[in-house]
Specification:
Length: about 950
């Protein structure tokens, strides 16, 4: 860039100073604020010193004007106005003259005045000396360089067209060959060279130019030739090249016309689901906004991210008149498409040829952002590997909107709306499969269809593959496909058709994992637990908790793992199968050790719970553990942990029975026994009983009679509590005898106590008392004070139910004394509510109610829901028999809810009986009657005697109504 004042050239070497003068000269007589100048001069955030730097540049320019003009010329020509500066002198630009000459040459050519056009172009080329604005800094200079580069390209293009019109084919070929060599990515030069060669009679060489261009674009940019080059190639092949003048006019006049790309993939015809989310995002994309909208759609492979993004783009396409552009970033490829290559594709869509592109990524990014600035366009960036991969492609400020898809979470894409996609809902999955297979076939085999949906995990890609296979095989029965998918070992192989498979989708992600991540991904997947805590995963992987969490969170970010809540992790079912299938020999060999480590952790955690909330129970009779386990600070934490882990532990018990060694089986059985002693209850107990029986048989095969018998005791407790299975008494008797023989007093005491409970359930109070008293004596022999206290508490309950009030009071007081000695809230609550119930029957209702309310308070401090349910049930009884039926109703209702939650069947039935009595006494016999009937039916089914509850002290009408209800139920 040169600056002349009249016939004198000004010596201005500093690039920033020259850039400031160029910006002011480009808009003469107009004030540019310091803010505008700073934004144009500095690419990033202007420095704090920007105003003073600009002020110094203005002073330097004024000195130049003073030196080459006249005194005072600086301030006269370069005026300081409010908030900025203005150049107040006439300015002439060579570029303006060049633009006029090119426009004139084009007009002459269109009119047939080829010689006049040639003269003007020669003059324009003489004015053009070197590359424009070399070295000038800032985004404004970058934009001007790009604009002037396009102008020069246009000038050369028109010049070549005129040369061809004048028949200078050989000269044009030589010049165009030089231009192709200088700018090999410019398709325009290849086009003109092909025309020149063709008109020179060198048709074969013209076709060779096309082949070379196509190979170059594919190898270096990953692009196919543009439509103009392809069309020209076809015309030469077919010898249909149009007349020279018309063709060249078309090429020249189209060059600077703005392009509006519409490059979206087709919308899927049978798009299903996500309707609410789609409507919400469409509303966001259709809203008028002066700032860039970025929506990042994330999720595991095959969940339908691209389909969803393209569907959204088609729904809002009318709101983006300046362009619709889809770019596949290839994030899951071994070598993703680079930002350089992607920017070339994006810029080409807006009419900028490869030969015009800056070589530096930063400059290319700036050109892209300048190109789309102010455009209301929609950009779909599909399959991004991570935030770093897509950042150069994001438009700057403006009205452009961006839809991004990625298997990565893109959590650090700040300012974006993050939209993690989950699998389809059951109804959506059914509809998707129905669209492919047909409603007729689905309705003919609805159970088989549901099995297919479950096997596919409601994952869109698996549903489409299964549906496509069925659709292309109309004679196949759905049940046959469902049977094949039911086999987990071959499920992934079944979910493949042509070049599409679920396994391939997952492998794309797995291939990118570092070795430590791959190990974690595979080992954790071997666990059958539905989900695992980060602490359990740390034990399984033999890593500290911080490292385990880092590994898990990284896998979540990569879409390889899910986190249903903070600190817990799980797999999609198909991804778990894939992970197991990728295990190498070392990982397969490590899994048994990993399984042992995680059971060791769980048992250590269970022992920590025992020590915290059941002091006095002791943990020395459980297997020793290497892990410190999870620590707890209060009873509530213990209860939450036990509830969160219960179904996962059932799955692990089953794995241990099938895959574990003797040591791991001992850990698993002791864990189950410790939780049983701790009062673990819930809907999982039937499953616990089943897998513990498997563990018992496995331990027997190991020759480990102690573990076998302990497993039997734990299984019997689960059956008795969770299923009201009274046949468990036989197992308890036999297993207890084995444990006593082997010197396992703790295990034998548990068996004896539960035998007493089984007898009490059957109203066989005398036999129950014998077992409880034997358990008391055994506890004393083994100095197990807590077990002795538990036996006294359960004995007190048996006495209460048998209406042996003095003995009940004595047993409850023994239990209460021991509870306070050992500091057990559980024992204290049990002793208090049995003492309260017995106190009521001895004629002190106020004291009885106070004792039961204290029992409830203690139970809630203890944090075990079943314990709370027991206390509520006794408080309801005491309130009812004290004559306040209306107050007893809500208490009894809450007791039923609590005991239903924990699946304590026998206790729940008694609570329901009390509830129905309270309702009847309160005047709601019609509401009570179906409850009484259900209690009677359930009791008969499991072989329980109906509770022997005395009628409440109520009016004669109330008692008569209750008696009538009892007769009807019995």
């Amino acid at each position: 860039m040169e600056v002349w004042l009249g016939d004198q050239q000004l010596d201005i070497a500093a690039p920033q100073l020259l850039a400031v003068l160029a910006m002011l000269a480009a808009e003469p007589a107009r004030t540019l604020s310091t803010t505008q100048l700073a934004a144009r001069l500095w690419a990033d955030q202007p420095p704090k010193s920007a105003p003073s730097v600009l002020r110094n540049h203005i002073l330097a320019l004024r000195r130049k004007f003073d030196a080459h003009g006249h005194a005072g010329a600086g301030t006269e020509w370069l005026d300081s106005t409010r908030g900025g500066y203005r150049l107040g002198i006439a300015v002439e630009f060579d570029v303006v003259a060049v633009e006029g000459l090119i426009a004139g040459a084009e007009a002459d050519r269109r009119s047939g005045a080829i010689d006049e056009a040639d003269v003007k172009l020669t003059a324009a080329q003489q004015l053009w000396r070197g590359d424009p604005m070399i070295g000038l800094p800032g985004p404004w200079a970058e934009r001007e360089r790009s604009r002037l580069g396009r102008l020069r390209l246009s000038m050369y293009e028109v010049a070549m067209a005129v040369a061809l019109d004048l028949g200078r084919h050989s000269a044009a070929v030589a010049e165009l060959e030089a231009l192709v060599a200088a700018e090999p990515h410019s398709e325009r030069w290849h086009e003109l060279l092909m025309v020149a060669l063709h008109r020179s009679g060198r048709r074969a060489e013209a076709l060779e130019v096309y082949r070379n261009a196509r190979r170059l674009l594919a190898d270096e940019l990953g692009l196919e030739p543009g439509p103009e080059l392809v069309r020209l190639h076809q015309q030469i092949l077919s010898a249909e090249l149009p007349a020279a003048t018309n063709e060249m006019v078309h090429i020249a006049s189209e060059f600077d016309a703005p392009r509006v790309p519409e490059q979206l993939p087709s919308d899927i015809a049978d798009f299903v689901g996500r309707e609410h989310l789609a409507n919400e995002l469409v509303e966001v994309l259709e809203a008028d906004s002066d700032r860039r909208q970025v929506i990042a759609i994330t999720g595991l492979g095959g969940v339908g991210k691209t389909t969803f993004a393209v569907h959204l783009a088609h729904r809002v396409r009318k709101h983006y008149p300046d362009g619709l552009l889809h770019l596949d970033l290839g994030g899951m490829d071994e070598h993703p498409r680079t930002a350089d290559m992607l920017l070339a594709v994006a810029l080409r869509a807006f009419g900028i040829e490869p030969g015009e592109l800056p070589s530096e990524l930063a400059e290319r990014t700036a050109l892209w952002r300048n190109t789309v600035a102010g455009k209301r366009m929609l950009l779909v960036l599909d399959n991004a590997r991570d935030v770093e991969h897509l950042t150069p492609l994001l438009p700057g400020t403006g009205t452009a909107a961006v839809l991004v898809t990625s298997r990565s979470s893109l959590a650090e894409l700040f300012g974006a709306r993050l939209v993690p996609l989950d699998v389809l809902t059951p109804d959506e999955a059914w509809t998707l499969l129905e669209h492919t297979v047909s409603a007729r076939r689905m309705s003919a085999e609805p159970e088989a269809a549901q099995e297919i949906l479950r096997a596919c995990g409601h994952l869109p890609v698996s549903l489409r593959i299964a549906g496509a296979r069925l659709a292309s095989r109309p004679t196949w029965r759905l049940s046959a496909v469902a049977d094949r998918l039911a086999d987990e070992r071959g499920r992934l192989a079944e979910l493949a058709i042509g070049n599409t498979s679920v396994e391939l989708v997952f492998r794309e992600s797995y291939r990118l994992l570092a070795p430590e991540l791959a190990r974690a991904f595979v080992l954790v997947a071997f666990s059958e637990a539905p989900d695992l805590s980060v602490a359990a995963i740390a034990a399984l992987l033999d890593r500290d908790r911080v490292e385990a969490e880092r590994l898990c969170e990284t896998l979540v970010d990569l879409g390889m793992l899910q986190t249903p809540e903070r600190g817990r992790y799980r797999y999609h079912d198909l991804l778990r199968l894939f992970a197991r299938g990728t295990a190498d020999l070392s990982q397969q060999q490590e899994w048994p050790r990993a399984l042992c480590r995680v059971l060791d952790f769980y048992l250590a955690s269970a022992k920590n719970i025992v020590e915290l909330r059941d002091p006095g129970v002791g943990t020395h009779y459980y297997a020793t553990t290497d892990s410190a386990g999870q620590r707890f600070t209060d009873e509530r934490q213990c209860a939450v942990w036990a509830q969160a882990e219960r179904f996962g532990l059932v799955a692990l018990y089953r794995q241990v029975a099938d895959q574990g060694d003797a040591r791991t089986r001992t850990l698993a059985v002791d864990l189950a026994l410790s939780l049983a002693v701790g009062g673990d209850a819930g809907a999982h107990l039937p499953q616990v009983a089943q897998v513990l029986e498997l563990l018992s048989r496995a331990a027997e095969a190991d020759g480990d009679r102690r573990t076998m018998a302990r497993a039997q005791v734990a299984a019997a407790v689960a059956r008795l509590v969770g299923m009201a299975d009274l046949s468990a008494a036989r197992t308890l008797r036999n297993a207890g005898a084995i444990l006593w023989e082997l010197g396992d007093g703790a295990g034998a005491i548990i068996a004896e106590q539960m035998l007493g409970t089984a007898m009490a359930y059957q109203e066989n109070v005398d036999v129950a008392v014998e077992h409880y008293r034997r358990a008391i004596e055994m506890g004393r022999q083994h100095s197990n004070q807590w077990s002795e206290g538990m036996s006294w508490a359960t004995l007190a309950r048996a006495y209460c139910n048998a209406r042996r009030w003095p003995e009940a009071v004595e047993a409850a007081e023994h239990a209460l004394y021991i509870a306070r000695q050992v500091g057990s809230l559980r024992l204290e609550s049990m002793a208090l509510h049995e003492l309260g119930f017995a106190t009521l029957q001895r004629g002190d209702p106020e004291q009885a109610k106070e004792l039961c309310e204290r029992a409830l308070t203690v139970a809630r401090r203890d944090g075990r829901r079943h314990q709370e349910g027991w206390a509520l049930a006794r408080l309801a009884e005491v309130t009812l028999y004290s004559g306040d039926a209306e107050a007893a109703v809500p208490i009894a209702a809450e007791a039923v809810r609590a005991l239903t939650e924990v699946s304590a069947i026998v206790r729940r039935l008694r609570a329901m009986w009390v509830y129905s009595y309270a309702l009847t006494a309160a005047g709601s016999a019609e509401e009570a009657e179906p409850i009484l009937r259900k209690v009677a039916q359930s009791s008969r089914r499991i072989g329980l005697a109906l509770p022997d509850i005395p009628p409440p002290r109520r009016t004669a009408v109330g008692s008569a109504t209750t008696a009538l209800a009892l007769r009807q139920c019995k």
